[in-house]
Design goal:
Helix content is about 30%, strand content about 35%. It is α+β, with helices and mostly antiparallel strands and about 375 residues long.
């Protein structure tokens, strides 16, 4: 009985010892695994020497404002031509898009009204000639002591009045579009010309034509618009919140989507003094050289303006690791050569830098260059 009891006790003791030995390593291994942080990485001295460490800093960010606009004709190089007299259009000499020179005829108008004014001019010319001869005869008679000085003065006064009427008639014809040469011919022929011509006042391109053959027109109507398109305006409506970023004389870039987003230079020549109460915007325009005529009136553009500098927390773009649609950086820990992968919220990019909105503070030590190699080392050790 004693031997059997002793054997049983020994067997029980051995089984308990074996169970205790086999059960202890499992929880220890699990505990080690839970203590490993996948976001921490310890670098070798060789890898540590190949990366660049630096402090997060604040720097001025100059943002770019994109303001929609359009191309317009420079009004200083634009001429609008209409009928100088009431009449009917008898011929049209230009088409839309034609290039014309200053003084070139655009259309011809047949007008009975013009004929009446020409008749008045012819009568004034004839009256002027009669009064001139009357004064010459009066001077001869005065020398012969046939008339008095008062009579000569009366006739000179009548000559002065005839001259004033002639000048008024000439001015009226010039207002109606007749040239000085054509007016002089009226006096020589003593016959009228019932045709008036519309001339271009500048050299440029016909960008509007409202005239039609046989159309009855009046002086108030606008028939042609001629513009010199070698200089144009870029016009935009700037929101009032951004008006502090622009000033007259400022140089800016203008992007033209129709020309493959080509950027051209312009100078801000005008900034409005009032705010549109409906759109809450201020009109601004820039002068642009257009020698090659690539820019067309009403073409859509974007005006790029540099905003005022703003101090922001920023890091180089090389410090950022992009994984799983999120951004991270490696931040140095108090342990030497150890770094932690930290999530960050990024903002605007500028000059190789990127704005950090959240996740870092100025002064934090981060991997500025070589973050890609540090992340590879972290992944390698995580797989071990």
């Amino acid at each position: 009985m004693s031997r059997m009891l002793l054997s049983t006790l020994v067997s029980t003791l051995l089984l308990s010892l074996l169970a205790g030995c086999s059960g202890k390593p499992a929880p220890a291994e699990a505990e080690v695994k839970t203590q490993i942080d996948p976001n921490l990485v310890m670098l070798s001295k060789e890898l540590q020497s190949s990366i660049k460490i630096g402090a997060v800093s604040e720097m001025p960010l100059v943002d770019t404002l994109r303001i929609p606009g359009r191309i317009q004709v420079d009004e200083q190089f634009e001429s609008r031509a209409g009928a100088p007299v009431t009449g009917r259009i008898s011929s049209i000499d230009v088409k839309l898009g034609d290039h014309v020179k200053a003084g070139q005829t655009l259309a011809t108008i047949k007008s009975t009204e013009l004929a009446q004014y020409q008749l008045s001019y012819i009568k004034a010319t004839q009256q002027m000639q009669l009064q001139t001869k009357a004064v010459e005869r009066a001077k001869q008679l005065l020398e012969a002591d046939v008339i008095s000085t008062a009579e000569l003065q009366r006739r000179e006064s009548e000559l002065s009045g005839a001259n004033a009427e002639l000048n008024a008639a000439r001015d009226q014809l010039m207002v109606l579009g007749m040239s000085a040469g054509d007016i002089s011919k009226l006096g020589l022929r003593n016959s009228g010309m019932s045709f008036s011509q519309i001339h271009s006042k500048i050299s440029g391109t016909v960008i509007e034509r409202k005239a039609r053959l046989g159309q009855v027109v009046a002086p108030a109507e606008e028939l042609f618009v001629v513009a010199d398109l070698s200089r144009v305006w870029a016009v935009a409506e700037i929101p009032e919140q951004q008006i502090s970023h622009v000033a007259k004389g400022q140089t800016l870039d203008i992007e033209v989507p129709a020309l493959d987003d080509t950027q051209i230079k312009g100078t801000l020549s005008f900034v409005g003094d009032t705010v549109n109460p409906e759109t809450r915007t201020v009109t601004a325009r820039a002068n642009i050289s257009n020698d090659q005529k690539l820019l067309k009136p009403d073409m859509l553009i974007s005006i790029l303006l540099s905003a005022k500098p703003e101090m922001v927390t920023a890091i180089p773009a090389t410090a950022v690791i992009r994984e799983n649609n999120a951004d991270f950086v490696f931040v140095q820990t108090p342990t030497p050569q150890q770094y932690r992968l930290m999530p960050v919220v990024l903002g605007r990019s500028f000059q190789g830098q990127v704005e950090v909105k959240d996740g870092l503070s100025p002064g934090d030590q981060v991997v500025l260059d070589g973050a890609f190699h540090v992340n590879n080392e972290r992944k390698r050790k995580e797989m071990e």
